[in-house]
Amino acid sequence: MADTPQPEADENWWRGAVIYQVYPRSFADSNGDGTGDLAGVRSRLPYLAELGVNALWFCPWYPSPMADGGYDVADYRDVEPVFGTLAEAEKLISEALALGIRTIIDIVPNHISAAHPWFREALAAGPGSPARERFWFRPGRGEHGELPPNNWPSQFGGPAWTRTTDQDGTPGDWFLNLFDSEQPDLNWNHPDVRAEHEDILRFWFDRGAGGVRIDSAAMVSKDPGLPDLTDEPGVPHPYVDRDELHDIYRGWRSIADSYPGARILVGEVWLPDAERFARYLRPDEMHTAFNFDFLACPWEPARLRTSIDTTLAAHAPVSAPATWVLCNHDVTRTVTRYGRADTGFDFATKAFGIPTDLELGTRRARAAALLTLALPGSVYLYQGEELGLPEVEDIPLDKLQDPMYLRSADTNPGRDGCRVPLPWGGSASPFGFSPAGTTAEPWLPQPADWASRTADAQAADPDSMLSLYRAAMRLRRAEAGLGDGSFAWLDSAPGVLAFRRSPEFVCVLNLADSPAQLPEGTVLLASGPLAEGRLPADTAVWLRG
């Protein structure tokens, strides 16, 4: 297929872009089956263009049994029928490009679905077969092989190994799955695995994709000896941040650079070591990577300032732009998290019944929106954040579908609370998510009180979260000093963060408990009402001067 032209010839568009994350299952349902689809996204492209985003990042839209929300991919060259067709995806990419919006697709190199033809072939072929060499099949430990091959844990709880059953009905080898048991890990030492993924990149770049987001990018390569995890200092991790990963991504970058229009690689790289993190952003590897330190940072002035400084310092040696994100499809929504006593984020602390002050959380989330959109680099905006949606924490237990909950013995609520279908309009569920007259319920239930949070209601309210985001993103496009560029802290009172992005543009955020003095200058935008010459607590302001 001929390569689809990209909008404008700006090779550096990604350095200051606002990229909107679409979770297709929950964005918009065009056919009334209760599940979002690509036709639904196409119908909402004018909304996204008015919001002012530069690109859309789509969570996986491929054929999948949905054991892990689509991150268990059965076929990378097609579209899950519940979402539409490959032709629909091509139309979506093309129509978005016509509005100046690029498309970034998700690639999951660590694993595939147990329904993928490769894995089915491997199970049928039996122990020791060439088909099994694309994965990590091993005999178990113990007298009868009844114990997993090593002590690696699954990210979803329990061991990272699942035992097979041989054709004669007896227990067989084990296979590695660092995530769900329906997601067997690939062996990246096998040439078929590398060649297949490079061809997948070309397949989607040929259809106009503007980039790929690489899921669990630092976990792809494994120590072939599969040693036990150990706390012994100086021992390299057997499956996180291994040096051989960089050769894989150099190969991917070479493919991306062979296409016009700056096709980008975005890594999901969870690493505490800033120097190791930056290695993925060298000029011949990824373009950008997600900033999880900032995402998980508490609403505290010293911690936020340190996170910003650390982020900028880590990116400077490789001349890569930072990324800023408050929430995604895995993380407790911002207005809920910021309304809690513990405003940071950690998967280990997710629990039922945590008290939340949504009024406080919303005020802080509004201020955080101006903070992130004023920082140097690119911004990722998860769908529904522009509506100020809270985490839905009262989903009936029998409706929860996330394996993180299902494997937690009912102790971890999982990630479904941030994945509830969006409210577009109307006074009752499905709030415009599905067409009028639809009988099928949304795949996750929406709160009954979301009428005031719909996009239609907020578009008519100049003080709404949506109106704030629209205004901020208009100013971001108009102000030459925003996006990628210079940054300098300004002197400020305790609890206040103030910085300059250009001689004319200043951002001030008050995280103290009491109002702070408002610097001189013309107010361009504020996250909340301003007192005369004072900046209230948990409020941010953009100034010219």
From TrEMBL:
Domain of life: Bacteria
SUPFAM superfamilies noted in UniProt: (Trans)glycosidases
Annotated InterPro entries: GH, GH13_cat_dom, O16G_dom_2
Domain Glycosyl hydrolase family 13 catalytic, residue spans: 21-419
GO biological process: oligosaccharide catabolic process
Pfam families, per database record: Alpha-amylase
GO MF annotation, one: alpha-amylase activity
Stated family: Belongs to the glycosyl hydrolase 13 family.
Protein known as: Alpha-glucosidase
